[in-house]
Write a structure and sequence with these properties.
2 helices; mainly alpha; about 0% strand; about 85% helix
């Protein structure tokens, strides 16, 4: 009988330790699950905002492309304007006389 008490106490302590470890593990798992859900929610919001930004950029591009199209065509009028603009920028400056 005397020997079974220390064993029983050892078993009780082992069960208590197991319960404590299980409780801590469950708490940690719940916290990680909460963190993961919050991160997933943030990612969904970011993805939604990116999709909205992408749609806005596509709409802006659709508005701008027709305006840029005549400039990309090689016509004498565009070539002349381009040459004039480049020529004005590259033209040497007059020396300043004091």
């Amino acid at each position: 009988m005397a020997r079974s008490r220390p064993r029983r106490r050892t078993v009780e302590l082992a069960h208590a330790e197991t319960d404590e470890i299980t409780t801590r593990a469950r708490t940690a798992a719940e916290q990680h699950w909460t963190d993961a859900r919050q991160a997933a929610d943030r990612l969904r919001r970011h993805r939604k905002h990116l999709a909205e930004d992408f749609r806005a950029a596509e709409a802006l591009l659709a508005d701008i492309e027709p305006l840029l199209q005549p400039l990309s065509e090689k016509t004498p009028e565009n070539a002349l304007v381009t040459v004039e603009v480049i020529h004005q920028v590259q033209r040497p400056r007059e020396p300043i006389h004091s």
